[in-house]
């Protein structure tokens, strides 16, 4: 497979930045899918399904390509966290997460649009938040404005100051694209990063 036919099924600038780390040429295109959870669908199932559906959604538009789909679901005490979208919602999410552990499930799929061959994987990362005052959260939110980030923070930026620790295999997964798993998936299609 020619790596110039690598497609990232995402409009996320964060995922694009991460994929650039691998020094592979790619194009990015947002996949228009319904991201609503199905009744009774667990976070791991949701992240896996959405990653696959995002990649599948671009197969017709990008024939003869390897298409990467990725999706992340954040969970606090069994409740799914979303991209807050506003300062108020961001403050509320971070106040709920303060002193707690939040699980992030990041699904990844890689599909050969010509053959239909598909491989996928899942990364789980747990973030333990520091106890945080309303003033600390307010200062953080005003500085980074992470309204478009699941959980309401940017771990690649000042958001790291919100955490006591991170437990997981790949710090990139927390940003939205598990690169360690992606490298292994690319190798299944004979694409060598190094």
Describe this structure in words.
The mean pLDDT is 94. The protein has one domain (3-188): Maf protein, CATH 3.90.950.10. It contains six helices and seven strands. 31% of the residues lie in helices and 25% in strands. The protein has 194 residues and is an alpha/beta fold. The protein is elongated, with a radius of gyration of 17 Å. The chain has helices at residues 13-20, 43-57, 87-97, 134-144, 171-175, 179-188, and strands at 6-8, 27-28, 66-76, 79-81, 101-112, 118-129, 163-167.
List the helices and strands and how they pair.
Blueprint (H helix, E strand, L loop, with lengths): L5 E3 L4 H8 L6 E2 L14 H15 L8 E11 L2 E3 L5 H11 L3 E12 L5 E12 L4 H11 L18 E5 L3 H5 L3 H10 L6
Parallel strand pairs: 1-2, 1-3
Antiparallel strand pairs: 3-4, 3-5, 5-6, 6-7
Helix pairs in contact: 3-4
Supply database-style keywords:
alpha/beta
Low-pLDDT regions: none
Broad CATH class: Alpha Beta
Number of helices: 6
Mean pLDDT across all amino acids: 94
Concise structural overview:
The protein is α/β, with parallel strands linked by helices. It has a single domain, classed as Maf protein.
């Amino acid at each position: 497979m020619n790596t110039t036919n690598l497609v990232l099924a995402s409009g996320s600038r964060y995922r694009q930045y991460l994929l650039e780390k691998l020094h592979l040429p790619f194009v990015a295109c947002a996949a228009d899918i319904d991201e609503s959870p199905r009744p009774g669908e667990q976070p791991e199932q949701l992240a896996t399904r959405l990653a696959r559906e995002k990649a599948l959604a671009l197969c017709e538009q990008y024939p003869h390509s390897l298409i990467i789909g990725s999706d992340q679901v954040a969970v606090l005490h069994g409740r799914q966290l979303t991209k807050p979208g506003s300062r108020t919602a961001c403050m509320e999410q971070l106040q709920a997460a303060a002193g707690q552990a939040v699980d992030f499930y990041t699904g990844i799929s890689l599909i050969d649009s010509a053959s239909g061959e598909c491989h996928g994987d899942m990364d789980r990362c747990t973030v333990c938040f520091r106890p945080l005052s309303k003033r600390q959260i307010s200062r953080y939110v005003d500085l980074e404005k992470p309204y478009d980030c699941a959980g309401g923070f940017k771990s690649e930026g000042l958001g790291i100051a919100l955490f006591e620790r991170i437990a997981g295999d790949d710090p990139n997964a927390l940003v939205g694209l598990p690169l360690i798993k992606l490298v292994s998936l690319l190798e299944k299609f004979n694409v060598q990063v190094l």
